[in-house]
Amino acid sequence: MSEGTTPEDPMTRLLHRLVTDAARDRPVPAFALLHRETDAHLDVLVGDVVDVDRLADIPLDGEEVLALVPFRQLRERGFTARDDGAPLRCLVVRERERVPVDLAVALLPATPPAVADLAVDVADDAYAEVVRRVIDDEIGRGEGANFVIRREFTGSTAATPAHAVLAWMRELLEHEHGAYWTFAVHTPGLSAVGATPERHVSSIGGVVAMNPISGTFRHAAGGASADDLVAFLGDVKEREELVMVVDEELKMMSAVCPDGGRMRGPFLKRMSRLTHTEYLLEGTTGLDPREVLRRTMFAPTVTGSPMGNACTVIARHEPTGRGYYAGVLARFTPAPASPSGYDLDAPILIRTAYLDDAGRVRVPVGATLVRHSDPAGEVAETHAKAAGVLGAIGAIPRSDASGTPIGALAAGATDDPRATALLADRNRTLAAFWSTPQRARQPREVSALVIDAGDDFTTMLAHQLRHLGLDARVVPWHEAPVVASDELVVFGPGPGDPRNSTDPRIARLRELVAARLEQRRPMLAVCLSHQLLAHLAGLPLEPLPAPRQGLQLHVDVFGEPAAVGFYNTFTAVAPDRSITPELGLEVAADPSTGAIIALRGASVASIQGHLESVLSPDGLALLERLVEGVLAPAPLVWSGR
Predict the structure, then answer these.
(1) The pTM is what?
(2) 612 is catalytic
């Protein structure tokens, strides 16, 4: 204990009581210890536990509230999740204090409890087989761009939960650096401790922020050099993963912020044993923070994309519910100046160990699977992540035999000019629309119905249409009218095999597209809907030799070159054709493969790529041209970028 830190010291009174009661095996009230990045103090919160059913039920009645939000809560968005009964648990704060971190470290238990009987719920061979199935049967069949599949490492400890998380919290405060939040939470039957690198969402004074993080550069035992970091930043898989999660979180930002989201970065986020790459997304909102949280459940970095289908894939391939893994720890703080009266800060629940009253320890981890994932590599990735958590709380050694900290990054590596140049170069090929504020067009008094075909890219598409002056609204595919009165109907992208007529969503979309064609009224079809239009126009649909998920391609769209992002596994083909056999639509196709890029005709146009994606630097201009073409049918005159 530091000099001057006594039981009577008002600065540490609350923390001292918790530590003393836990050490003497006396009843300990529900508590949370929170340390936020760059803060020199630790927040100590003690209060009452209340379990509620819905996010809207979180009791924001003037007190601070800390909520453990389980993964199953995303059923509030209509998504699939195994119901494992994990409660939406709220700590309604009655007492609090702020303690300097050095005093807190001196007061917390010095010896971390051991974790024994280490095991894993899904064996390595079985997990590798799951990885293969997801790549072949899900990504390979167009169900999505990437998916995160979890497994759990388990163990046991003889320590009481309160004492264990207090001691493990000290280890994190002493040895882990760069975490967005470091925390310990103790409630009846459920305790947790972790150092999460990633904010999911915050809403402070009406400013919403999200931090998409991807790519994991693990500092090798004995140290990592600037050359190692440069090699990591040049890795194609790492770059693609980050851009895909940026796209996914921009979908969420477009759903909660009327002005969409603006992208800053990329940045390096350096931690004790690893380094990530990240962007910062910001926008403004007037929504209640509970609604902001509901609309953004949960981070694509721990689920996949598109979000809805990712949840279905997770339920299909993970044998048990996720508990709190990939959920959030949401802090609601009274803020009179905020539009809603409360601010929200909610990091993702990853890099976390859970402990129940029986002494069972669980460390859930996941691997992000993309089209070129290696099953053995993903197995190794989960082992490394679990070892990172267990090492961080002191369950395994942190240093090698020479005493060098495992995972040290060479001094100055992040300032290496090569690393700086590689980061800066990433934005050169991305859409400026999402990073640079742009003046909106004058309102056109044109209504646009955007049909969500199962992918929240439609929120970004609708945002861009509003930017172009259209009055755009989004409806899900199963609620869309067969005959729409809107001046423009935009059929959005979605996952799945467009040839599967037994899929109710595919069948309904085909019906809606056919009905709009029969009306001969303006329409635009994107990605999956473009494929359905092409099929109605008499063209065959085929799987691509390799999925194009999160790829930027340079294509020719009716004589105009454009850089566009693609997320597709299937394509319509028209070898040696310039006009479709049915409907008489003009074809823009890849001359080497016959894969169709776009179609157009009187009052109708379609595009295979995602014009709204951050991967589409020419997307907004191309969207504007296509919309103008269908609203005022005439030969299009394409201008340069």
Answers:
(1) 0.89
(2) yes
